[in-house]
Fold:
Amino acid sequence: MSISTSRLGDGRGPSPAAAGERPLLPQVRLKHWGRWVSGVVIVLLLVALIAAASQGDISYGDIPYYVISPIILQGLVGTIVLAVVAQLSAIVIGVVIALMRISKNPVAQAFAAGYTWLFRGLPVLLQILLWYNLALIFPRLQVGIPFTDVLFVDVSTNAVMTTFIAAFLGLALNESAYMAEIVRAGLKSVDRGQIEAAQSIGQTPMQRMARIVLPQAMRIIIPPTGNDFINMLKGTAMASVIGYVELIRAANNISSFNLQVMETLIAAAIWYMVIVSVASVGQFYLERAFDRQDRRPGGPRNARALRRKIVGDLGRPPLMRSEK
Structure:
């Protein structure tokens, strides 16, 4: 008895049609025309921009010379020093203001709220100009015993309020108001139960803050602080209006003699991108370090030690996670 091979398909079994199944549809690759078109448009725009810039009256060969020019390097050092000193001071002041803001002292709370309101409300450039012209209000800075002629310090305000000091005060005090809110948000993010547990074993407020609260709050505080430091690096450019030598002022000093404005500004822009990139890399590794510590089983090291101490004081064995 012969069996038709047409019903067996290729001889290895019944064909899909014979089994009552529908044949598989062929796979068709999607053509993302929108991606290709947008990509081509972006590339064309970049090429057109580069071509237009190459036709400008700019001596691109002089830019590397200005990048390593002693005047530009002096401005670079001035930018970094001012930004670092102002940011560190702002962090210290911000922590103090944040602690006053969350304290139970109504006078401290009112002072902290007023401080934040004042320095966040005034533009940074205005604050720098106010400090630089402080001698118009206080010609001399005097410190002594009130209502007597005894003076410990008596100096001219212009001698003290240099361009660096004026720029430092304007940037640091303005940034400290923002840092106070950042720190306050980080402190309030810590679980209240851990603070009460630390209090129950007799830790002082300073011990609780240093060992329990701050290590955990740093995970919330570091990202916006890093962003603010990058803004601080760029914000130092506003100090050029009072004559402080930073990158913008250094570039203007050079271009005022040779009239190569764009060349010197591009050199300053290159250094801004370099220092901002370095700061961004540092912020990334700092965030990753604190994030890794906070994601360990049981939480941060100080919190784990606190729980072990409480369990030991209560005389109970620690809770173990089941391996089932």
Observations:
- The CA atoms of residues 123 and 174 lie 8 Å apart.
